[in-house]
Amino acid sequence: MERSVITRAKNAEIAVDEALKLLAVPRESVQIEIVDPGGRGMLGLGNRLTVVKVTVLDIPAAQTPAAPSSAQQELAPETLETASSGPAKPVASYGRADEEAARETQEESGEIAIVNGRFRIAASGGRLPLLTPPAGAVLLKNGVPVGSKVSVAPGDELELDTSPIAEPPVWRIELDEACLRAEMHVKPGFERRFSLVDSKAQPHLTVPVTETRALMPIDEAEVRGRLKDMGVVFGIRAAAIAEACRSEHPGTFVVAEGAPAVQGEDGKFDTNFETETKRTSPKSREDGTIDYREIVEFPTVIEGQVLVRTLPAKPGRPGRDVMDRPILPRQVQSIALAAGEGVSVSEDGRRAVAMRQGMPRIKQQGYRVHLSVLPKLEHRGDVDLKSGNIRFRGDVEISGGVQNGMKVEAFGSIAIRGAVSGAAVDASYSLIASGSLIGAQVNVGRRSEFLDQVEPLMLEIASQTQLLQSAIEQLSQTAAFKLNDIEQGGLGALLSVLLRGKFKGLHSVLSRFVELAAKNETQMDEEWKEYAGSLKFGFLDLRYGGFRNAAELDAFRRRTLEITEGFCGPQDRPVFAELQYTHNSHIYCGGDVRIGKGAYNATIYCQGKLETAGTLRGGVYFAAKGMNVKEVGAPGGVSTKLQVPEKSAIRAARVLEGTVVQIGRRSFQFVEAASNVHARLGSREELLLF
Amino acid sequence: MFAYQIHKNETEAVVMLEGDFDIDSGEMLEEDILPVVSEYDQVRLNFGEIYFVDSSGIGLIIRMVDELREGGRSVKIEQIRPEVMEVFELLQIREILGEEVFE
Question: Please, are residues B44 and B65 in contact by the beta-carbon 8 Å criterion?
């Protein structure tokens, strides 16, 4: 039997004295343990009292058989804890008592072991072994699953649930947007089984188990069924399905794959003539004259020459999606050759052949290639009253000059070897004047008024005719409409009704065209006249029954487009004017203007660049894309003005006093001569001169 | 096949037309019907038994209506069958002749 008391006082001495008093024993017969030495509190907060435990040693125990329990209770406020005799429970935090407690526990504990897969529970005294169930597996104690740490007694029945735990596979099939791939996403499923691992006896057993996993394969038939439900019937890969169904790892498998379409190629064409404009300087002959034939300005073709060969379009191959639907490749376009004047297209549409010698022209709009050969007129000598004016649909070369009051007009380009004085020159593409231009009116690259007016009409005629064709088509499908009279007498009667009703607008456009054509009859060549005739007798003058049938109407519409393409659309040849010397002339050019020697008192308006290696002396000069001149201005004070838009610049090696330069809206007059002028606008639109 | 009957009273002539109104009926219309009905102030063309038309027939109707109206007559076209009306609509005959003809 042991008796002990714990006391608390300001210091150890007082505490022990107090304890001895309480136990009523001398100091020699006790063991003293200082539980807490006391002292200043943490951070100086409050004083802690000293705590001591005084235990009576066994030998003198008999001397003091009874402790006055009443006295103990009276002292309770002074006593933190009083442990009296009896089956003392160990107080964990008290060093010595703890050791004893441990010894006592060992003596009384139970143990649990696993031997040959069976639990062995041994318990003596009041202590029972503890058991922590295995993670994942189910452990039954007396038939009830164990959730967390429990104690077990020898009679308990412990059993590991060894029935398999199934985690079924998860999978889905996804189709891409184009239905070209079916992908199977798989998370494999497993059956897990646990078994006990033998373990030696211990008071606290965390039950050791081993896990065995068996793959739960996906049913291939189910996958196939799903594919079928989704409509996937083409390009199914059996091997991939099998692999996906047996995969032990999560993954994505392409279980069906369609065949994409193989794209074809559009038609192409080869050009069999020089399309580039070659420029070589005219050569001087030994006798001092100039050989103009050396100027290769434009490509020339001869009669019978194949101008263009087409390479047929290669159609693609259709593919198939996984739903077994065809995937059509992109439609390929073939090159359609359209014959303009002087050109014929072979029956198979593969070749365009020049029907005469001249300048080939080629225009491409989309997959339509329009070809024509412009004839060339070589005029020997001067254009004068004897020769008459020249008006020609093609290129014109004049070996002499153009005299006062005469006019030269060409749908193509013009080359004039001699001087032009007091005459008008009008070229659709370019002008090369090797002589002087004096008092001349020059227009280069300006389309005739007739073409300007007629172009929108023809586009309207083409589109309205197309609507007309579909209206007739629609009409012919109605039950109550008889077609006999059309088969016998042509479309005339029907057209006259349609042009009075639904296609009133087309009627007025057609009438306007006929009016313009009549006014400009002199300008029209055979091609135009033929077209205008077919329009008039097809739609308006129905004496001969109008267009015979839908095919004729369609041919008319296509012809309209062809002719329009022939004169409008992008310029296929450069527009420029190349002059030597010009005096008192008025010049308009849709492209660049180059002046060899100089200009005096001229008005030049050009949409391209103006360049001269000579002098601009007096006059007004405008160039949309800028100027580069050697010298500008007149010493006599004749006013000379150079003008360009705000984005362009003027460069002049020498500028004489009095010259005005204007860039956009800003202008400047040179008070004195200057060199190396580079006039343009700065970033803040200020005028910079050098 | 084309046939007609004309019912007349003092001011009005009603032409009951029957059959196909086409290129072949033109002669009858111009030579037989037109001279008779142009005597009356009001002319009603009954299309109830017209089953087919063609472009010449329609041209004739337009010409006939124009001519009668120029002579100060009032013309009406009545009881057009739906399938014939479809053709009239496509050709916009109403717009050409004016709504009043179809009232």
Answer: no
A180 three-class SS: coil
Contacts of B101 in chain A (CB under 8 A): none
Report the distance separating Cα A670 and Cα A657, nearest Å: 5
Q: What is the C-alpha to C-alpha distance for residues B55 and B13, in angstroms, rounded to an integer?
A: 25
pTM, two decimal places: 0.47
Of A403, A440, A432, A407, nearest to A584 by C-alpha is A440
CATH number of the domain that residue B31 is part of: 3.30.750.24
Q: CA–CA distance from A658 to each of A107, A157, A632, B39 (Å)?
A: 129, 124, 10, 89
Identify all chain A residues contacting B81, using CB atoms and an 8 Å cutoff. 480
Residue of A474, A500, A507, A548 to mutate, interface with B, max B Cβ within 10 Å: A500
In the numeric block, which tokens belong to residue A226?
């799903």
Alpha helices in A61-127 (DSSP H): 69-74, 95-108
* Cβ contact, residue pair B52, A489, below 8 Å: no
Which member of A474, A480, A485 has the closest CB to residue B55? A485
Select the residue of A479, A493, A501 nearest B92 (Cβ to Cβ).
A501
| Chain B residues lying within 8 Å of A498, measured CB to CB | 91
Provide the token pair at A545.
Answer: 């029954």
The H-or-E segment that residue A133 falls in is none
Task: Provide the domain limits for residue B45.
Answer: 2-102
Closest residue in A to B56 (Cα–Cα): A493
Q: What is the pLDDT of residues A113-160, one digit of tens each?
A: 888 888 888 877 677 888 888 887 888 888 888 888 888 888 788 888
Q: How many domains does chain B have?
A: 1
**What fold, for A268-374?**
OB fold (Dihydrolipoamide Acetyltransferase, E2P) (2.40.50)
Nearest to B90 among A474, A482, A496 (CB): A474
At B42-98, the pLDDT tens digits run: 889 898 888 988 888 888 888 888 888 888 888 899 899 999 999 888 888 888 888
